[in-house]
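Model: Ready when you are.
Researcher: Fold this.
Model:
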Amino acid sequence: MNKQGIALLITLLFIMAISVSIGIGLKYVNDASAEVENENFLFQSRVVADDIINLLKNSQEIEALAKEDSVEGLFIFLSQSGFIPFEIADLKISMEISSARAKFNPNTLCDGNNTIAVKKVDALKEYISRYRINHTYVDILLDNTNPGNTSYNSRVFDENPYLFREYIASDMHLEDINNFYTQTYYDNNLKNIDLEKLFYVSPDRLTKIDLNYATPEVWEMILGVDRPRAEQLSLGGGSYFDLESLALDEDEITSLSRFEVSYFEPSLDIRLHISKDDKNADIRFEYDIKNKKGLNFSYAI
């Protein structure tokens, strides 16, 4: 059986295991919480998330992907299991699985020792200027990612005194920053960039960009190339093993050196949407395959 066939089998086994595991867990929740509908839905959502994490931890197939350090195997798995819809009991569930290292983590603009990564900052400023966004936006990001900083570039904390100051903690935190920029500087040009495809927020300042999953927006930013070139590089994902396999020119190689990149980062971005009648829950977390650990959780219920 070839690698693609093996990856497809892993995906099918994965989906079957999800259904069985969650179904068993929900049976007990339904028995225990039938009288209180809202609490029942909350418990059910937690059970779904917990069972998926346990399934990932105990899956020999998923573990094999990390042990083999297989760029091709992980790429095929993510390609075939990117979106999984299923129903358990009275819940409709959809699960999206993607690489958690496909985008740029804005918290890496500054390390934990208050040192600003100047080359990354310059690259991001160059990128946003092409979309008519003022450099001030990057300065505001720095205000929110520089721990211990007491000299701010903006009034973001005057306007939002309860905003967390050590790092950008969540997508909602980033949204607050974006709203502050738009409202303070009367600039709507952030809409010119798909920030959802550019940024992935993680408190880990050591994250690398996995070039096999980098979006066109990320390629544009890290290399300073035009959109067609960025899309070409993005379409080549799954075939990158080293610098030579990227087939970059000298200027592109120099630009790339400003960032921490990788060709194999076994970290999954898991998104769950759970619905029951008029109730909805959105749960997102990162799963570190090698360390069998779920982290960076966010809940919206």
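Researcher: Now this one.
Model:
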Amino acid sequence: MFIKNPTFLLLSLAGIFSLGGLNAQVTTGVPVLIDVGNTNDPFVSYLVVDDQSLGNSALEYAWYYASTEEAGTTNPLTGDDLVQAVIAGTSNTPYAFHPITEGGGGVDAGVDGFQIGSQTSSIASIYDYSATNYWIYWINGGSQTQSYSPYQTYTPTNWIIAPDTSFDRILTNGSWDGWTLDPYDASTYTLTGPAPLSAAAVPEPASLPLLLISFGILFAVMRWNSLTGGSKH
């Protein structure tokens, strides 16, 4: 059955998730910093993958760029631009970055894991209802406006679970995007962090209200995108 308006589904899912005592398998070693682009450019944003399945050091890609707008437009750079820049800028290197996504639909369709060079992370589909872990998208700095009612805008100064997909995430100089593999307990509907590590600043835990809603909302948004063919324009 196709749902023509996802709002009811979003609100329904938002109510069943709460914080619990589980812990993500984030790393404890010194993060690995990988420069992408021209380091003389004035702006930089970071993309982090933090999970022990890829070793005991978080991988932090620092993307340097000359303008905060997409080339030839006045459109602000997004989380999708960051992902694509890191993919292109690390091709054929030991830290080549390749998200493993649902049906090859890109990170906005759901992240199942990551291929980093010759290493493959743990794999967990967001549509596998028996899974005990899911890859969760986090943001720090920049902004994001929900693509659904009430269309709230967030401008986090610490890590929070993203309230929408990376397509609707706006980068700013010094902003961070990240993924962690977070445990989920289906018997108690619990999901928790912690957030990705940061070489520049160790983040504080995400705020309780956003953690309560984010996993259900992101699942619903991704599911809605898949049902409608992923059209965003």
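Researcher: Key takeaway?
Model: The radius of gyration is 17 Å.
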